[in-house]
Amino acid sequence: MYHFVGIKGTGMSSLAQIMNELGYEVNGSDIEKHFFTEEGLIARNIEITTYDESNIKEGMIIIKGASIKDDNPEIVKAEELGLKIYTYNEFLGKLTEKFKSICIAGCHGKTTTTAMASLVLNEIKGVNYLIGDGTGYAHEGNEFFILESCEYKRHFLSYHPYYAVITNIDLDHVDYYKDIDDVIDAYREFANSAEKMVIACGDDPYTHTLEINPPIFYYGLDEDNDIKAINVNYKEDGTSFEVEVEGNYYGFFDLPIYGKHQLLDALAVISICYYERIDAKEVNKIFKTFKGAKRRFTETVVGESVVIDDYAHHPNEMKSTLKAIAQKYPKKKVVAIFQPHTFSRTDEFKEEFAKVLNMADKSFVMDIHPAREAQEDYPGVTSDLIIDNLENGDHINIDEADKLYEEKDAVFVFMSPNDIKSLEEDLIKKLEEN
User: Fold this and answer.
1) Within a 10 A sphere around the Cβ of 342, how many other Cβ atoms?
2) Residue 65: what are its φ and ψ, rounded to 5°?
3) For residues 332 and 361, is the Cβ–Cβ distance under 8 A?
4) Alpha-carbon distance 373 to 364, whole Å?
5) What are the pLDDT digits (tens) for 79-126?
6) Which residues of 64-99 are buried (b: 16+ CB within 10 A; e: fewer)?
7) Rounded to the nearest 10 degrees, how much is the dihedral formed by the CA atoms of 107, 109, 112, 117?
């Protein structure tokens, strides 16, 4: 029996589903609150309980989520019984050793890129995949394993990439990384572990600083990239473009994607397909069915209003989301709702958050979600650090959907990795009723 402590985590849920698909007995525990990541667990009848030491039995193998502390009662009990305890990344690294792993890393865009790659390559080749949106699938007979590979605390160094894909390098997780050089150093080590090659976004300023041994190929819009998108047309119904590889024509793509960031994500996947010698027309045909990853630009249309649910929580991610909205809905008013994630990130990027939110016509900011941090360790760090610098902004609580309804007939974009779904649902209900 594999017992997952923190089973509703985005990667943990996916990994539990994969183990279930492979025929292993799986259960897990978490808090009672509903998360979108548990949908796949429920569909597979995987038992979910709350944390309790009585859940831990002799003979279990324990998988510990990244947010789980050592004083969790189940971890304490497992230690007492002398059970084998793996961290999430340790176990995923062990599981994927026997496959050709396509490890998709990057400070932004890795979930969407992993979802894109999983769709296209699974239709053509049949692949295993772990997406950080609570989606996972595996079959023992598949050659490739596509996995979202997170840089937090250098977790991605537990993996064994055949292809190492880097969507971008940026300063984030400032509670762990000292500075951008520390982040680059982690990515250098990750890239050096690639068995076949590294595929990296050449439009990113930091990927070119990587001094590595494996061959590295760059994709992007800039002229000096190995894989280059040309004749790009950003439209209200998607984006079309052609792809050249080292000066040679590869193919035409007309995809339901929005914003430069999604175009670059798509280019990463197209690059993999090129090096796997897959026909471009076949790639385009499957890619056209892409519906997006969970909680990444997920849309609900109610009359003249559009509600978008997005995981963005770093200024660069938020900017990309707002630019994508401008492409798809160029004539609509945009209302941004943001819940900052962690005090350290809020303090580090407070000015950048305000600047990005000022791209919207109106912005609302919620109280900071502390996650693994405590308010007493960050005196004076509140969402007011952002709100005070907004041109047209206000504070909002989870139960104040009335404030949003006053802005009706707009695009409402909810941005946060946290669960603020009740505020979204309250707004949607008010829009439907009226």
Assistant:
1) 21
2) -65, 160
3) no
4) 23
5) 999 999 999 999 999 999 989 999 999 998 999 999 999 999 999 999
6) bbbebeeebebbebbeeeebebbbbbebbbebbeeb
7) -80
Amino acid at position 172, single letter:
D
Going 83 to 86 to 88 to 93, the CA torsion angle's sign is negative
φ, ψ dihedrals at 176, nearest 5°: -120, -50
Distance (Å, rounded) from C-alpha 384 to C-alpha 291? 36
Structure tokens at 373: 């941090």
Alpha helices, DSSP H, located in 289-417: 315-328, 343-357, 384-387, 401-405
Spatial separation of the C-alpha atoms in residues 150 and 133, rounded to whole Å: 13
Among left, alpha and beta (phi > 0; psi -120 to 50; other), residue 153 is left
The whole-angstrom separation of Cα 229 and Cα 328 is: 20
Which amino acid belongs to residue 400? E
What's the full length of the chain, in residues? Answer: 434
Do the bridges between strand 298-302 and strand 393-395 make them parallel or antiparallel, or are there none, so unpaired? unpaired
Residue pLDDT, tens place only, 295-309: 667 889 999 999 999
Token code pair at residue 264: 């670059």
Distance CA 105, CA 102 (A): 10
| pTM across the whole model | 0.81
Q: Which residue has the tokens 């061959």?
A: 215
The fraction of the chain above a pLDDT of 70, given in percent, is: 99
CA-to-CA distance for 17 and 203, rounded, in angstroms? 35
